[in-house]
Amino acid sequence: MSSDMTLLLIKSLGQTLYMVSISMIIAAVIGIPLGILLVTTAKGQILECIAFNRIIAGLVNAVRSIPFIILMVAIIPFTRSIVGTSIGTTAAMVPLTLAAIPFIGRQVENSIKEVPYGLIEAALSLGATPLQIIKHVLLPEALSSIISQLTTVVIGLIGASAMAGTIGGGGVGDLAIRYGYQRFRPDIMLITVIILVVVVQLVQFIGNYIAARLNKK
């Protein structure tokens, strides 16, 4: 493999990491509070508001039901209005972020539901406010599980970022399409697959390590 192709591989990997990192950060900032609201506004919970809960749950389910490749194409006008273009690494982050937010919300919801309700009742009996319960009970107790769930989301985003290459999203997926598939270079296809596998394994290892360190059980 030529030095030019090696540099292109490095550049593409950097684009993938950039896309996934920024998308994940933005999605987590929105998705984690969303997951908390999905739990705390449900019936019998500390911020019970059934109508609001049904609305946000419906929106989450609606977005999650859209296949990523369709979502990318469907929101092209929105992407162009946000970043000024629908092609490239930065543009690909818009659908990646939108796809990740409801996924994170549901994953965080599942993690928080694992917290024994007895801990919440104990905090309520001590006069804790809903915000204090979220901050000092729910999040600390569910943190290890949340990290594990977020690791799964990151891995999903890596696969989605590769899919974004089909519409010129940049990254390893774009390289595989343009230089591997379209130019009939199976060696390039193989290398891109190996790179993605290594990145996924590394992310999973780091996620498992952090989750294990935070696990209080």
Automatic annotation (TrEMBL):
Gene3D superfamilies: MetI-like. It comes from the Bacteria. Its main location: membrane. The chain crosses the membrane at residues 16-39, 51-76, 82-103, 146-167, 188-211. Keywords: Cell membrane, Membrane, Transmembrane, Transmembrane helix, Transport. It holds the Pfam family BPD_transp_1. It is a multi-pass membrane protein. The keyword Membrane applies. Residues 13-207 form the ABC transmembrane type-1 domain. InterPro entries: AA_ABC_Transporter_Permease, MetI-like, MetI-like_sf. It is found in: Cell membrane. Belongs to the binding-protein-dependent transport system permease family. This is D-methionine transport system permease protein. It comes from Pectinatus haikarae.
